[in-house]
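sry for the spam today, last one i promise. struct tokens for design, 385 residues
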């Protein structure tokens, strides 16, 4: 069996690593140049952690993890609202939780995969032809190749999904927010793992990366879904956050590399089926939990592990169906959690801010953190079922 993986992000690279475990040949195509990654951080939770252990990579991820400590939240005028400690959350998860910058995650996965997998950067799929026995693929670099199966792991605005299933609009479920994230150098330590500010319909702040930089994350209510150019993105951020004090002001005054930064509508993906013929989808291209759930990378990693295992022991059509049956309940639940969290993460009123400032520290304190974790975190999947 020979498989093409479209997309060299966390989902695609994890699938390549899992296919290697089973001795299945694969090729990865990635539209970006090698080394180009987003400037945001990602969380590794129970299901991603368990996959990383099976791949023998958990110690590498832990060595490159961001520091866990206090999270401080202020209002837009700098007045303290509340705080909590990420170490408490890690403790109630049995220590199986970490945050890591996306570029570090990518570097670890790439080193693990590239020795035995052909990764073709700056390459996209331009045409797929199914002749009944396999797929004939044409690429943007002029090459053509033949594969038994294709896996789409090219993000929530998946070009492959549009090619196979139709326009993005049929599957995108906007949640009513936009978000932006990038990485920036800082002159002095933040003094906490996260320093953020909150206002009605807005949330913004900086995460300490532990290497003299910070990772930003800004989110605000916005129903628009159009794509913007670099100047328009900066203008929107200034309109939404330009009057806020430090550290937000510093973040907006930095030079932003929009080639590596994130700015987009916060959307989930809802597909009636994750596969069609010999093509199947994984991660954000299939479901997209959004960053609000905090489980996107871990769920994609679990999906990759399960998909590879099913393909190793079943005909592809049966493997696709079983993979979806095992993942769909978790994905549906976590999408609902993500929508629920959004209403708390971005308060809609002054009363909402006050209630959150009172309730959230209690929920995330040691006596109640385990209960909150059960409500909002993904349960552990039986990866070896």
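last one done:
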């Amino acid at each position: 069996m020979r498989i093409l993986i479209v997309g060299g992000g966390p989902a695609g690279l994890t699938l390549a690593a899992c296919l290697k475990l089973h001795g299945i040949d694969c090729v990865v195509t990635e539209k970006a140049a090698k080394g180009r990654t987003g400037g945001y951080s990602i969380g590794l939770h129970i299901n991603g952690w368990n996959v990383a252990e099976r791949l023998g990579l958990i110690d590498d991820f832990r060595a490159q993890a961001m520091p866990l400590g206090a999270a401080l939240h202020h209002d837009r005028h700098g007045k303290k609202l509340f705080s909590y400690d990420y170490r408490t959350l890690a403790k109630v998860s049995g220590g199986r939780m970490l945050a890591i910058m996306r570029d570090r995650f990518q570097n670890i996965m790439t080193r693990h995969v590239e020795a035995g997998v052909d990764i073709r950067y700056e390459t996209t799929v331009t045409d797929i032809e199914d002749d009944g026995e396999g797929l004939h693929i044409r690429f943007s670099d002029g090459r053509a190749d033949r594969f038994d199966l294709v896996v789409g792991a090219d993000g929530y605005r998946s070009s492959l999904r549009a090619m196979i299933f139709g326009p993005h609009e049929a599957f995108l479920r906007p949640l009513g927010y936009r978000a932006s994230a990038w990485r920036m150098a800082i002159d002095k330590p933040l003094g906490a793992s996260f320093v953020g500010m909150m206002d009605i319909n807005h949330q913004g702040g900086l995460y300490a990366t532990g290497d003299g930089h910070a990772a930003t994350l800004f989110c605000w209510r916005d129903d628009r879904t159009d794509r913007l150019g670099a100047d328009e993105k900066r203008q929107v951020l200034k309109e939404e956050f330009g009057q806020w004090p430090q550290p937000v002001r510093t973040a907006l005054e930095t030079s932003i590399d929009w080639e590596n930064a994130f700015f987009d509508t916060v959307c989930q993906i809802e597909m009636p089926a994750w596969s069609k013929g010999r093509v199947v989808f994984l991660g954000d291209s299939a479901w997209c939990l959004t960053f609000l759930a905090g489980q996107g990378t871990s769920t994609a990693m679990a999906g990759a592990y399960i998909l590879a295992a099913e393909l190793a022991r079943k005909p592809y059509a049966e493997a696709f169906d079983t993979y979806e049956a095992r993942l769909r309940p978790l994905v549906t639940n976590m999408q609902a959690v993500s929508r629920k969290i959004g209403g708390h993460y971005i308060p809609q009123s002054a009363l909402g801010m006050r209630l959150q400032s009172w309730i959230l520290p209690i929920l995330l304190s040691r006596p109640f953190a385990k209960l909150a974790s059960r409500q909002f975190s993904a349960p552990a999947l039986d990866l070896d079922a």
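The chain has twelve helices and 19 strands. ok im logging off now
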